[in-house]
Structures are given as C-alpha cells and as structure tokens.
C-alpha cells in the first residue's frame, strides 16, 4: 500500500558514506529534501577529472568512448559522445505497465545520488545536483512496473529518472499532477542538463530500485512482526491458551535471538491478563495449546532473524558504489566490473517473501480457531451474535485464506528465473526488481492478514467478558473501538471494518496502543 507523504520535515545530507535506513525512509515516505555535502562535491569533481582525461585519450574506454553491452566494441568519435549518452537514456527508458509508487521512484533517485556522491561514477557535479534538486522539489519521474532484469542495474527504471534530468518524459509534481518533465523543471526554476561522456551510463547502472524496496520492506516487516506478536497474544488469550510456554528459561534452551524476543513480547503482552489467570489453576484440563498458538515465537522469531539477515545485506549494499565501469580516482583509471549484478539483494528479497507468507499462514490458522465451535472453547460459532441468522467473521477468514494462498504463490523465488539478454552478453541476470515488486505485495498481504486476526481476536476478547484482557491487549481493543470498529453484535458490513483495521496495523497504531501501556517491544 502507498504511504501518505506529508510536507518535507527535514533535509538529508548525502556524503560519500552510505545512506541510513532512517534517511531513506525520510526521503521516500516523508518527502525530505536532500543536499550534497562538501565531501561529496569534492569526490564527484575528482572522479569527473579522471573521466575527462580518459575521454581525450586515444585508447577506447568502456562507457566513455565506446558503445554499451553487446555493442561495446564500437569506438565512438568525440563529437558523437554527447549523443551517445542521450541515446543510451532514451533507448533504455523502455519501461511498460503500471506506474510504480512514488516512494519507489524517490528511492531509486536517492540511492543513485548516493552512489554518484561516492566519487566512483564520473558524473558532473551539476548533473548530480539536478538529481538532488528533483528530490527536494518532489518532482517524481514516471517509472513503470516492467523493464528491469536486475542486472546491469535497474536499467529501465533508472533511465526514466535520467530522462527527466534531460527535460524529457513525464513526471509528477509535488501535488501528484502528471506533466512533461520540461514543464515541471521550469516551474521549479531548474534547467535540464546536457549529458557528457559517461553521464548517461552513470545514472542508470545500479541496484537502486530493488535496494530501496528492500529497505522499505525491512522497515515495514520489523513493525509488522511486533504487531504479529500482539495479534498472537490476543489469540492465545482469547482462546484460553497458556503463557507458560513463552517463559524465558524455555526459550534459552534454543537460543535463537528472534525467538527469545518474540516470546518476551508475548509474555509482556499477556502480563496481568484476567483471561489467562482464569484458567491457570490446577483444575485446568488443557494439556498443550495448538502449534499456531504455542509455536508463535518460533515462527515469528525465525522471521525476525531472517529480516535481520536481510538488513545486514542491505546495509552492505547501501555502503556500495554500484556502477560499471567504476572510476578509481586515486589511481586515475576506470575499470569494468560485475558489481551491478543484483544477486545478493535478489536472494534476500525472495527470503522475505517466504517469511511474509509463513507468518501470514500461522496468523490465519490462529484466526480460524476462533471461528470453529469445536476448538474455540465456548465461543459462539464464527463469533456470530446469533449463529445461523448471523455469520460473524466467517468470511473474514475466507479473505485471510485467499490472501495467504496468494502469498504462497508470491513466495516462489524470482532470483532463480534468470533469462539472457543483450545478444547473450548479459546471459545471467538476478531478477531482483521482480523479487522486490512481489515482496511489496507480500508485505501488503501480511498486513491485511494480521489486521484480520487482530480484528477477530478483539471481538473474541469482548465476548469473553466479564473476564478482563491484559492491559496491553485491552488497549488494542480500545484503539479499534475508537477508530469506529464496533464490538460484538448483529452482522454488519464487514469490509470497511477490515480496511480500518488494516490501516491501524499499517500505520503502527495497533503497535503504539500496546506500547503505550507496557513500553517498547523487543
């Protein structure tokens, strides 16, 4: 789902070091502007001097005085090199399909600018500055869903961004209005650039799209996995489960850090629960809870550890300068390399789609237990007000099941599906962009599944009264009711309530409600 973009609240300084996760989120989702540091400006100028020197040399240099890809053997005369760069961008801006989200395009632009600022690409300072200006003025090029194979970088998406620097193609202004790039630049008082040697190539040869989508997905999943712990706690409580299985000494026997964190969250969330206390005595005949309740920390924890592994990969990629050829300014040379291959990023994008599918799967199973009279321990069938007349949350679980089934399909890896291109010069590609696009759908699906579990568990907890839920889960139920989601009663139009719950989960409001009572979750 697209995140709302308020007016810029900050400015991010781009230097020669990596952009942080928080800085990327500030620019992509909160409209922060960007500036280039003096250090970055010096590095850019230094690398540019190397490119200009090589451009004058009689020896061909790839990307400076030659063609590209399978056409790299052709030497380009000096008077044709500016045209070479323009032609490169125009021909590679070949995307098709729906327009991608604004935050994705801003991520493309930001991370390309970050690489330019390292002093390894040979861009001119004025070109890098114009890219920064587009971000600051919130001018967003139109980028399409299809076009990147995730090798030689996200070529087509980045080319659409580079096209806007030339004053060509379509963009959206700050208000979201679609217009020609030349018009938007003029309105902002900006002047298009005329690309010189290597500049077109430097602007399009990176893993920036897949990487920015990875960072945003990690940010979302970190929040969603804490919210999944809240949903699980509400389900354990509402289904008269035990919190004893989450004890720290039991988790220590299998010392996965994510598992320990998730179990600690469940213990904190269920603390002082009147519902749990009501069946804690010696007369309780419950031996073991179902796996979907008892094993929540193991599943959520494994997901957490996978997300953190992905974050370590993303951190290394953020610290990289991805371009080909790359400028080694200190040595005064330009060298071809394979650092543009998106495999490291593509793999973890696929890993996270698996994580999203499985966490959603266990969430759906917990939800289903509420609705089955044989397993819900005294609750009305389907949590219906008048079963038979009313259907309660029967079809809400259908919606969950449909989403989970889709998430399982999205968990099929894109990174194993290489397809050759460029007359077999580029004969193995990462498909990282495709992996990133499907992960965004997976994160959205997980959000919806967890929201339906929260919605259903809240209804069940109300139906358990006069037993009192824990302070933390009570706060979540109150937050839902404050948002207009009514408690148990005769059937009503359920879709709007589901969408409200989805927004409360996606915005972090459900997490905030619990945290406001018990403090930060692990």
TrEMBL record:
Keyword Lyase part of the UniProt annotation: yes
The reaction(s) this protein catalyses: L-histidine = trans-urocanate + NH4(+)
CDD domains attached to this UniProt entry: PAL-HAL
Domain of life where this protein originates: Bacteria
Keywords carried by this UniProt record: Histidine metabolism, Lyase
Compartments where found: Cytoplasm
One GO CC annotation: cytoplasm
Pathway annotation from the record: Amino-acid degradation; L-histidine degradation into L-glutamate; N-formimidoyl-L-glutamate from L-histidine: step 1/3
Statement: the UniProt record of this protein carries the keyword Signal: no
One Pfam family here: Lyase_aromatic
Alphabetized GO MF terms: histidine ammonia-lyase activity
EC number: 4.3.1.3
GO terms classed as biological process: L-histidine catabolic process to glutamate and formamide; L-histidine catabolic process to glutamate and formate
Family: Belongs to the PAL/histidase family.
Protein name: Histidine ammonia-lyase
Source organism (scientific name): Nocardioides daedukensis
């Amino acid at each position: 789902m697209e995140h709302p973009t308020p007016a810029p609240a900050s400015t991010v300084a781009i230097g020669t070091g990596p952009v942080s996760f928080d800085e990327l989120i500030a620019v992509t989702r909160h409209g922060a502007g960007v500036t280039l540091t003096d250090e970055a400006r010096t590095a850019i100028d230094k690398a540019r001097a190397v490119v200009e020197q090589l451009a004058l040399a009689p020896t061909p240099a790839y990307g400076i005085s030659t063609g590209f890809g399978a056409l790299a053997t052709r030497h380009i005369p000096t008077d044709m090199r500016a045209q070479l760069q323009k032609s490169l961008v125009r021909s590679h801006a070949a995307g098709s399909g729906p327009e991608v989200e604004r935050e994705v395009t801003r991520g493309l632009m930001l991370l390309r600018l970050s690489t330019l600022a390292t002093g390894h690409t040979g861009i001119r300072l004025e070109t890098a500055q114009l890219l920064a200006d587009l971000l600051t003025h919130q001018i967003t090029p139109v980028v399409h869903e299809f076009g990147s194979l995730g090798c030689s970088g996200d070529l087509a998406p980045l080319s659409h961004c580079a096209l806007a620097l030339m004053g060509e193609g379509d963009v959206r202004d700050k208000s979201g209005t679609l217009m020609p790039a030349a018009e938007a630049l003029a309105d902002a008082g900006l002047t298009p650039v005329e690309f010189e040697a290597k500049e077109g190539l430097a602007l399009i040869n990176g893993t920036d799209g897949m990487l920015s989508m990875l960072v945003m997905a990690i940010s979302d999943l970190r929040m969603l996995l804490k919210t999944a712990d809240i949903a699980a706690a509400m389900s354990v409580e509402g289904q008269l489960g035990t919190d004893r299985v989450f004890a720290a000494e039991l988790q220590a026997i299998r010392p996965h850090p994510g598992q320990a964190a998730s179990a600690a969250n469940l213990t904190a969330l269920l603390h002082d629960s009147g519902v749990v206390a009501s069946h804690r005595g010696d007369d309780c005949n419950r031996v073991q809870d179902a796996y979907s309740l008892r094993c929540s920390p193991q599943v959520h924890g494994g997901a957490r550890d996978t997300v953190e592994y992905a974050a370590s990969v993303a951190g290394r990629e953020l610290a990289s300068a991805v371009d080909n050829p790359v400028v080694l300014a200190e040595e005064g040379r330009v060298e071809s390399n394979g650092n543009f291959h998106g495999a490291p990023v593509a793999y973890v994008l696929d890993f996270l789609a698996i994580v999203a599918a499985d966490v959603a799967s266990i969430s759906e199973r917990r939800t289903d237990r509420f609705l089955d009279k044989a397993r819900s321990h005294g609750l009305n069938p389907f949590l219906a007000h008048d079963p038979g007349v009313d259907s309660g949350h029967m079809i809400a679980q259908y919606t969950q099941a449909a989403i989970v089934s889709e998430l399982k399909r999205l968990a099929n890896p894109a990174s194993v599906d290489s397809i050759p291109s460029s007359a077999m010069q580029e004969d193995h590609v990462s498909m990282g962009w495709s992996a990133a696009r499907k992960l965004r759908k997976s994160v959205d699906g997980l959000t919806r599944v967890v929201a339906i579990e929260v919605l259903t568990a809240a209804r069940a907890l109300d139906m358990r009264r006069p037993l009192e839920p824990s302070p933390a889960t009570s706060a979540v139920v109150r937050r839902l009711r404050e948002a207009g989601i009514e408690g148990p009663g005769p059937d009503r139009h359920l879709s709007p309530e589901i969408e409200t719950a989805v927004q409360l989960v996606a915005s972090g409001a459900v997490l905030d409600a619990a945290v406001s009572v018990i403090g930060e979750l692990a």
